[in-house]
Design goal:
The structure holds two protein chains of two kinds.
Chain A: H1 2-23, H2 27-47, H3 51-73, H4 89-109, E1 129-130, E2 133-134, H5 141-150, H6 153-174, H7 178-182
Antiparallel strand pairs in A: 1-2
Helix pairs in contact in A: 1-2, 2-3
Chain B: H1 3-23, H2 27-50, H3 62-65, H4 67-97
Helix pairs in contact in B: 1-2, 2-4
Classes of the chains: A mainly alpha, B mainly alpha.
Chain lengths: 183, 111
């Protein structure tokens, strides 16, 4: 099916880009691969009919965070040694493999069909509704706006407060101390 | 494309991020791996919201179904705040130590 083929293609791109972040020899290329994998995440969000989250993902991560990381990469002095691993590589890969096997065993063997109705399995339609069959892209931005300003109002304002606090904290960390200059 | 497929992709990305967070020397790469872990969690939230019972078609179930997407928005906001704060911390460590290796930057009290 069309959607399935696109999903497997995007998954392969996402996993390979994420592995290339860790295993490329140049840390600047790692930042570029991070931007690519964030684009793949946005494609996954679009396929999961969360178009607002996909647009926000492109705006925030590909636009802002990747540029921020690419700017801080310029602080790296020795670009050849910058992607070295420490001595915990083998232990952490063993731990990661055990975690992955356990959680995949759970995900595969759990009966998700009690909770899900798979619209995607019987629909090729990319609009909200074409003919009689339900579509894949459904307008959710309207309901997200209503939901975030009613049910999640406190959490929304608190996340704004967290953003303000992190902004003030970043500026306080980076300010030039006048006393240090005079001494 | 079922729920378990998306969850397995999310788990693989999370494990890759965990691997990078534990085993990298450079602070910038650790922050990149942290961003991967944030996004893997957000992806599983959006997948649960997509395959929730009732689907996205019923209007009265929008509050219950779209809660996962609201959580994804909050995760993106917290991830952006974390990236800005951590990178300014990297710059502060670099001023003090002129190196951004994590093993050199344990003592940042006077930084």
């Amino acid at each position: 099916m069309f959607i399935d083929a696109i999903f497997y293609l995007v998954s392969i791109l996402l996993i390979s880009n994420s592995l290339l972040i860790l295993f490329s020899k140049n840390v600047y290329r790692s930042a570029v691969f991070l931007a690519f994998s964030m684009l793949c995440f946005a494609a996954m969000y679009f396929m999961l009919s969360a178009e607002f989250i996909g647009v926000i993902q492109i705006l925030v991560y590909v636009g802002a965070v990747s540029v921020l990381i690419a700017l801080s990469v310029m602080l790296v002095k020795d670009i050849e040694k910058s992607t070295d691993n420490n001595k915990l590589l083998y232990y952490s890969s063993i731990i990661g493999l055990i975690f992955l096997v356990l959680i995949s065993f759970f995900i595969i063997n759990f009966n998700w069909d009690e909770f899900s109705n798979n619209i995607l399995d019987n629909s090729n339609c990319l609009l909200s509704s074409c003919g009689s069959e339900p579509g894949i892209l459904i307008e959710s931005t309207n309901w997200l706006g209503k939901l975030i300003t009613t049910d999640f109002m406190i959490a929304f304002q608190l996340s704004g407060l967290i953003l303000l606090a992190s902004l003030i904290g970043a500026l306080a960390l980076l300010r030039v101390r006048m006393n240090d200059d005079s001494e | 494309m079922t729920l378990s497929n998306v969850l397995i992709v999310s788990a693989i990305i999370f494990v890759i991020g965990l691997l990078g967070t534990i085993s990298k020397k450079s602070t910038v790469l650790v922050i990149m791996s942290l961003e991967l872990m944030f996004n893997a969690a957000a992806l599983s939230f959006v997948a649960f919201s997509r395959f929730a019972p009732g689907g996205l078609l019923g209007v009265e179930s929008a509050s219950r179904v779209l809660s996962g997407q609201v959580m994804a928005i909050f995760i993106i906001a917290i991830g952006a705040a974390e990236a800005a704060l951590a990178l300014s911390l990297v710059i502060a460590i670099y001023r003090e130590k002129s190196s951004i290796e994590i093993t050199n930057s344990i003592d940042i009290k006077e930084a």
